[in-house]
Each structure stands twice: as C-alpha cells, then as structure tokens.
Amino acid sequence: MSDTEFEIIRRYFQRQKTRRSDVITGIGDDAAVLHPPTDSELVVCMDTLVAGVHFSQGTAAAAIGHKVLAVNLSDLAAMGADPLWATLSITLPDNDAAWLDEFSRGFFQLAERHDVQLVGGDTTRGPLSVTVQVHGSVPRGCAIHRSGARAGDRIYVTGSLGDAGLALCLGEQADDRLRQRLDLPEPQIAAGQALRGHASAAIDISDGLLADLGHLLAAEQLGASINIDDLPRSAAFNAAMQQSANAHPEWHYELPLSAGDDYELCFTVPPQACEAAQQALAAVSVEATAIGVIEAAPGVRCVNAAGEDYRPASSGYQHFGETP
Ligand code: ADP
Ligand code: MG
Prior knowledge:
This protein folds into two domains: 5-139, CATH 3.30.1330.10; 154-310, Phosphoribosyl-aminoimidazole Synthetase, Chain A, domain 2 (Alpha-Beta Complex). Helix content is 33%, strand content 25%. Strand 1 (23-25) and strand 2 (33-34) form a beta hairpin. It has helices spanning 3-13, 61-79, 97-113, 163-170, 176-183, 189-195, 209-218, 235-243, 251-258, 274-283; strands spanning 23-25, 33-34, 40-50, 82-92, 117-125, 129-139, 154-158, 201-204, 223-227, 265-269, 288-295, 299-303, 309-310. Helix 2 (61-79) runs parallel beside helix 6 (189-195) and helix 4 packs across helix 5 (176-183). A seven-stranded mixed beta sheet has the order 8-10-7-11-9-12-13, sandwiched between helices. By secondary structure, it is an alpha+beta fold. Bound molecules: adenosine-5'-diphosphate and magnesium ion. Adenosine-5'-diphosphate is lined by residues 1, 9, 13, 27-30, 88, 90, 118, 120-123. Adenosine-5'-diphosphate (ADP) is lined by residues 1, 9, 13, 27-30, 88, 90, 118, 120-123.
C-alpha cells in the first residue's frame, strides 16, 4: 500500500467521532477486534455501489457515502437487527480530496445517527466502486426473516412509497423532498427493532413493492391481495403528481407498486398481533399502513377501493408466479 493510501485512510476514514465500547481494535491494525453482544446473534450483510451502474458520475459524493451505508442498514432493519459496526472497501480512480471529504462526511453523518463505528476496510485504485459490510445483532432467535408469513396475516409498509421513483421520473423537475428520498434514503432501523416479536416476516423495499413482496411470498409459496388505493403516498408525491405537467396519471399506482429505492419495510403480522405491532411502531414514531392480506393461492391480486381488479403495467408482477 502506498503512502497516499495510508494518508487517505488517516484523513478521511479514521476521523469518526463515534467510539463504541465493544470495539477493542478498530482501524489501523491488520484486522478489527470486536466484542459481540452476549446472548445475541450476529446479522451481517454487504452491498456494492459501482459508478455508472448504481449511480451516475455526476452523483454528489456525500449522497454516495450516505447511500452505500443506508442500503446496508436497510437490510439490517428488515432483519430487526441493532446496527453495530461497518467495514468499507473503496476503489478510487484518483486521490480527489474534495470528493473523499464529501463522501466520508455523508457516510459518517449517517453512521453517527445509528451509532455504527467504521472498524476497517480496504482502499485500492481503479474504477470508482464502494462496498460496505455492516454487522448488527439481534437477541438470540429474534431475527425477522423473509419467510414466516402465513395466510391471513396482514401486510403493512412503513412510510410512503413511490417518492424515489417519482424523483427519477421527473429528473430536474423533482422537488427537494422527492430528490432527498432518492439520494438520501433513510433506513428504517427503529421500525425493524420495534417489529421484533410482532412481525411474522419482513423485507426492505429496494426493487419495488411487488418485486420485494414477491420474495416474501416465494419464501412460503403464498400469495397476496393488495388494495392499491391503500398504498401510502407522501404529500410531496401527491403534490408533484397534481402539479407536474410531465407526470403520467398511471404513475399514481405504478410507482408505489413497482418503483424501487424507497427503502421502506414491507412486513406481515398475524391478525391477533396487529394492535401490538402498531403500538410498538407508534412508540418509535413510525407510521405503517395496512395494504393487504396474505392468501394461500400464489400470485398477487391488486384491487382498487371499488373492488375492481387492477393489472400492474410493469413487468414486476411476473415475479409472483402468476401465469401471464
Ligand atoms: P493490510 O495491508 O494489513 O490488509 P491495509 O494497509 O489495507 O491493511 O489497511 C490498514 C488499516 O486501515 C486496516 O486496519 C484496514 O482495515 C484499514 N482500512 C483500509 N482502508 C480502509 C477504508 N476504506 N475504510 C476504513 N478502514 C480502512
Ligand atoms: Mg496486514
């Protein structure tokens, strides 16, 4: 490793304020030494963002730093885990001080908020690519999985759907609230923690509700019925749909159903646990909306408030075992 790479690590990645007491050795040795919580299970995941594939060259460095950690924390959230530590592997085309400063600022701002400590990583030269691994924990046996849903369970989503998708569709015309949903997604850590012991299954929505709910259903070979008029849409979404000349009316349903990048949680709850689940979420100020019910017959049926069938335009629904 060259002097510049040591200097990059020291200047940009060793400057975190958060120091967790369970980190015995962090950045600077051959490996990190960590003290896992007792009576817990470790929950580990990893995600990579590649320039030109997952973000365009023009994306703000701070947004990339935020997002690469956020998408990982979102996976921990879906498991109901408490975040602990992160490692970061970064491949850089050059030593761009301004870019590194912004990237690490975006990364650490989110890390501080969730008490996650960066404990190590790797720094190499090449086409821009960033990989983060996060480690979390759950009390033994308490992780929430994609499997576990049963016919009759209610289906919920946190927050609102379609904002990030609408920001993508509107491009320059998207207002700051929508842009923020796309560039700075907020991992639903508190929701995941609150759902431990209540949710029968959960998944985070990265590829769109239909696609991700499809994974949850596939895990148990079940189906679902969704009321498309119950899908939660934000005030910013509704305002942009009314005011933007470029907004297509069908986006009202299509984006909440099929657009990705919202990083909300989709989860299922047995009927008798719904009240307790709602209370646990309210206690951490998380809004969740009931959007449908798990059914024994495979496939997703979308109906509107009038009870009429709705066939999603996007190919997303093919994930659901429905015969075309
Ligand atoms: P080694 O050569 O022993 O594999 P390195 O010289 O690559 O170690 O890294 C030195 C130290 O800096 C290690 O503790 C490593 O985990 C840490 N590190 C390297 N790159 C990063 C990074 N991008 N973010 C955080 N820590 C890093
Ligand atoms: Mg070494």
